[in-house]
Write a structure and sequence with these properties.
Layout (H helix, E strand, L loop, with lengths): L16 H13 L3 H13 L12 H14 L3 H19 L17 H27 L4 H20 L17 H4 L2 H18 L11 H27 L4 E11 L4 H4 L5 H12 L14 E3 L16 H7 L7 E12 L2 E12 L4 E6 L13 H6 L3 H6 L14 E3 L2 E8 L18 E6 L9 H16 L3 E5 L4 E4 L5 E5 L5 E8 L9 H31 L1
Parallel strand pairs: 1-2, 2-3, 7-8, 8-9
Antiparallel strand pairs: 1-12, 3-4, 4-5, 6-7, 9-10, 10-11
Length: 547
């Protein structure tokens, strides 16, 4: 007889007998063994993301997750398995966040593990709830796999938007370095790719049925074939479409590799500026200019003087002397405004010409909670917790009003992004206007030589494919890169290196049939509709049982 938990479930027959005995042995050993297994599976799943990119982990962890879900005896137990899996995934995959605590004198390093575990514990709730929802709907066979993929994806979308959003480690992002598969986000978005991935990997659990029905067996076979087909189509797309360039727009990205702990030292600020100036000049040039360069680009807060945008700024004048006539410089710099006795600080991108005249300015709109601003800061100060607010920087940055599209004469229009704004699917261009390329300036020096900069680059690549727009990425310590509209890296400079990245500007391709925001909305309707369908079926069954 097979084990009957939550409906007709897995039978103890080949090829499942070894797995069944394994689970029974774990359960007999300790009541903590199954949560521990979930945690280990989550840790293993983290290897699927950059920089390891071991995607086979998906096709091991997700089927095993479904087997764990099947064995859950209650909704609480199902939630526990999902939460521990999420905790393992995020605590290992996002451990690099803790490195930022070593770069701040006013924040005790001892807080790093507590902060990372607190964040990952919250993020794991989304995965725990997806397990609970699937268990509560009581589907079986293919329906269970479909419900699980829908719940996982729907709560990924929620994680990307709720409470300012944190769309890191989306399952679809596993494919960011596997460009043939990643091409699919152009049509279905990264969330659609998450749904496809979880469903295809999860369908492998159907092979563990003792006597699977033919439709279910067919689904399992199709799941094995879906990604080779997707990869083949993506490979053909890459093969058929070469990178096209705007040859009149030459780029130079400056990566000065300034250590984060030294970046804001008052006695080193002028040295940092001179370091950027030296790298900006053309080697062998006679006039000390960035000869032949249309766009000279420095990274986030490359200039640390908050008066850089003011009339008469000496630093802006010095930087403008690097430019040929008709060329432009773009840099990150802090700025401030004063009104009614209130001072506001902004993390800004500033563009100007060879005469030092401002042509564009963008203030970062999507700030990092606890890094660039403290949620409920005014409330905490009113409660007397001023020391806590000072611990995260004293005065928070203020948010800009909206995304922008900046147009410089003779240069294709672009969407300016600062730091982690580039990780948000469907939120990287101004609604209603399509630029011709995207520029993200960032300072990944906070995270040293960890996995963080590689993951940040991978997500920027996905945005390029998703929008059909080139992505130019200028960072302080790396990885700076020029990426075309298909996610191919044209040129880059590695992590922890000093130098420049030079390239002509790649051209945009045709806009997707529908906007990325609408594609995400379609994924939400699809996954929510599937879950609603199974919920109505459950309610009908329960009503019939009561009668």
């Amino acid at each position: 007889m097979g084990k009957t938990i939550n409906g007709p479930e897995i039978k103890a027959g080949a090829p499942h007998v070894l797995m069944e005995r394994f689970f029974q042995a774990l359960e007999a050993r300790s009541r903590h063994a199954m949560p521990a297994l979930s945690f280990i599976l989550g840790m293993f799943l983290s290897l699927a993301f950059a920089p390891t990119n071991f995607f086979p982990a998906l096709f091991i962890v997700i089927p095993l997750s479904l087997l764990l879900l099947i064995r859950a005896r209650s909704g609480g137990q199902a939630f526990s398995y999902g939460w521990w899996l999420g905790f393992g995934l995020f605590s290992v995959g996002l451990n690099w966040i803790g490195h930022s605590f070593t770069q701040q004198d006013n924040v005790p390093v001892i807080l790093a593990p507590f902060a990372v575990f607190a964040l990952t514990a919250l993020l794991a709730i989304y995965i725990g709830v997806s397990f609970w929802v699937t268990w509560r709907l009581r589907p079986s066979g293919v329906a269970r796999v479909l419900a699980f993929a829908s719940a996982w994806t729907l709560f990924e979308v929620a994680r990307g938007f709720w409470f300012s959003g944190f769309p890191w480690h989306l399952i679809g992002a596993v494919w960011s370095e596997w460009l043939p598969v990643a091409q699919s986000v152009y049509w279905i978005s990264v969330y659609g790719l998450s749904f496809l991935t979880v469903f295809a990997a999860g369908a492998l659990v159907l092979f563990f049925e003792e006597h699977p029905k033919m439709p279910e067996f067919s689904v399992a076979i199709a799941a094995v074939l879906v990604f080779p087909v997707v990869a083949a189509l993506g490979y053909q797309r890459l093969y058929d479409n070469e990178t096209r360039f705007n040859l009149s727009v030459s780029l130079r990205l400056v990566q000065a590799n300034v250590p984060q702990r030294e970046k804001w030292r008052s006695y080193l600020i002028d040295d940092h500026f001179d370091n950027h100036m030296q790298l900006s000049r053309s080697q062998g040039g006679r006039n000390g200019k960035a000869e032949g360069i249309k766009l000279l680009i420095w990274p986030e807060t490359a200039v640390q003087r908050k008066t850089f945008d003011r009339d008469g700024s000496l630093l802006r004048w010095r930087m403008s002397r690097l430019l040929d006539f008709g060329a432009y410089a773009i840099t990150g710099a802090p700025r401030f405004t004063e009104a009614d006795g209130e001072v506001k600080y902004y993390n800004s991108l500033i563009a100007f010409n060879a005469r030092g005249e401002l042509y564009g300015r963008y203030d970062k709109t999507h700030l990092v909670p606890f890094g660039e601003y403290l949620p409920f800061e005014s409330v905490l100060k009113s409660m007397g917790l001023r020391q806590l607010t000072e611990m995260v920087g004293g005065s928070s940055w203020s948010s800009g009003e909206t995304l922008q599209t900046i147009s410089l004469p003779g240069v294709p229009s672009f969407s300016p992004l600062i730091c982690y704004e580039a990780i948000f699917p469907g939120q990287v261009t101004l609604l209603g206007t399509r630029p011709e390329w995207m520029l993200v300036i960032s300072n990944d020096g906070w995270f040293g030589m960890s996995d963080g900069p590689y993951q940040h680059l991978a997500l920027s690549r996905l945005r390029a494919i998703e929008e059909g727009l080139p992505m130019v990425r200028s960072t302080s310590t790396g990885i700076s890169a020029v990426i075309d509209s298909y996610g191919r890296t044209i040129n880059s400079l590695g992590l922890g290196r000093r130098g420049t990245v030079e390239s002509p500007l790649p051209k945009a391709i045709d806009a997707p049939f529908v906007s990325s925001g609408f594609r995400i909305l379609m994924v939400v309707f699809l996954t929510a509709g599937i879950l609603l369908f199974y919920l109505l079926n459950l309610m009908r069954r329960e009503r019939t049982e009561r009668l």
